[in-house]
Amino acid sequence: MWQLLNAAGTVRDIARHTRTYHFAAAPATTFYLRTESATVQIIRWVKPLIEVTTRLNGAFGWRVLAEHDEVGVYVAAKRRAVIGTLSSAIFEVRLPYDAHTILKLEACDLHIANLNGEIQIPANFITPQAPVMLLGAGDDD
Predict the structure, then answer these.
(1) Cβ(96)–Cβ(50) under 8 Å?
(2) Domain range summary for the chain, segments of one domain joined by +
(3) What angle do CA 5, 39, 121 make, to 5 degrees?
(4) CA 85, CA 66: separation in Å to the nearest integer?
(5) Does 134 have pLDDT greater than 70?
(6) Above 60 in pLDDT, residue 136?
(7) Within 13 Å of residue 23, how many CA atoms lie on the same side as its CB?
């Protein structure tokens, strides 16, 4: 019985994958993220560094590409057609306050921490199936 439980734990651990990418960020750099059916956490900080941590449950169901150049950092994550429906992902992104941020999200949960300023969300941006949650500094949730 214990061998069966240990084997199940090993398979679960193999299916989970965490990776952290680090990129030097020049002033006013651009960060671009494109993903689907994931949780995205944006955290601003004062370091001149962009740090992207990917937590993939069912890593076999995801393809992730991260690149950078002199203009910015680009991360694209796509779920595989059939086996991707069995997987989930969390993207935790830490970036400088002056980084220009572009997010192309489909059916995602978005959390923003350490937020100052104004955010405008177009009326047709939110659908009942895809609500937007914004968390500013000092919020309990």
Answers:
(1) yes
(2) 16-125
(3) 165
(4) 22
(5) no
(6) no
(7) 27
